[in-house]
């Protein structure tokens, strides 16, 4: 199996895995609405998910690593004629992988330990833990994972789709779908700044897995034919 087909398979498997993990956390942890809650609500709820919840969060944290083979695959498939554009797209995919992983890893690691201490601490200690929890959410969650990570991944999708429109004109509808998904992601990443973009962020939650599967399928097909 060549690297292009492997990257396509990684995208499809990743999209399905994201949907599965997201669905579980939505039921067991009220995710993502729980992200806006205070430590007094969120930390006990996190601990209540038990070992299964922690395992699911760990899997979720490592899923962004699929952007690396996906970025390499897209570069190898479409970079022959648009090498500069696809180099930037590859860098964005790698950056998205690391930043999103760092943002998600706080839940089964630091937040988990904070939750264990919080339920046994007194009011004064709980106030300190709550401040730490809020700080980690702001830095690792809002800035690193959700803002920088989503910006990098949206740029990867946007650049890849724009290149796709140039080198694969017969599938222009898929390219435009990717452009729309990338732009929706770039707008939706400001949801922590203003609620005006909340509908676009919600729409992107549906567009993203669909386009990941479409791009994955296109890369698998391209891997059989060779680079463009």
What is this structure's SSE topology?
Blueprint: H1 3-29, H2 39-48, H3 50-62, H4 67-78, H5 83-105, H6 110-118, H7 123-167, H8 172-188, H9 198-225
Helix pairs in contact: 1-3, 1-4, 1-9, 2-6, 3-5, 4-5, 4-7, 4-9, 5-7, 6-7, 7-8, 8-9
Ranges with pLDDT <50 over ≥5 residues?
A: none
Portion in beta strands: under 5%
N- to C-terminal separation? 18 Å
Question: What is the rounded Rg?
Answer: 19 Å
Biggest sheet character = none
Number of strands: 0
Kindly state the mean pLDDT as a whole number?
91
Q: How many individual domains?
A: 1
Describe the structure.
With 228 residues, the chain is an all-alpha fold. It has one domain. 81% of the residues lie in helices and 0% in strands. The chain has helices at 3-29, 39-48, 50-62, 67-78, 83-105, 110-118, 123-167, 172-188, 198-225.
Outline of the structure:
Helices cover 81% and strands 0% of the residues. The protein is mostly helical.
Key features?
9 helices; mainly alpha
């Amino acid at each position: 199996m060549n690297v292009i087909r492997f990257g396509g398979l990684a995208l499809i498997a990743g999209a399905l895995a994201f949907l599965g993990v997201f669905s579980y956390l939505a039921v067991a942890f009220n995710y993502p609405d729980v992200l806006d809650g205070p430590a007094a609500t969120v930390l006990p709820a996190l601990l209540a998910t038990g070992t299964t919840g922690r395992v699911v969060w760990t899997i979720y944290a490592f899923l962004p690593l699929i952007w690396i083979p996906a970025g390499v695959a897209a570069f190898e498939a479409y970079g022959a004629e648009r090498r500069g554009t696809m180099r930037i797209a590859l860098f964005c995919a790698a950056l998205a992988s690391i930043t999103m992983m760092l943002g998600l890893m706080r839940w089964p690691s630091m937040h988990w330990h904070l939750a264990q201490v919080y339920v046994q601490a007194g009011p004064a200690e709980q106030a300190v833990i709550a401040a730490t929890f809020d700080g980690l959410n702001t830095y690792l969650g809002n800035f690193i994972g959700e803002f920088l990570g989503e910006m990098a991944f949206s740029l990867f999708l946007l650049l890849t789709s724009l290149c796709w429109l140039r080198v694969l004109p017969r599938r222009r509808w898929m390219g435009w779908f990717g452009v729309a998904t990338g732009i929706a992601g770039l707008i939706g990443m400001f949801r922590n700044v203003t609620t005006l973009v909340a509908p676009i962020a919600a729409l992107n939650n549906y567009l993203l897995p669909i386009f990941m599967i479409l791009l994955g399928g296109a890369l698998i097909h391209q891997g059989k034919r060779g680079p463009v």
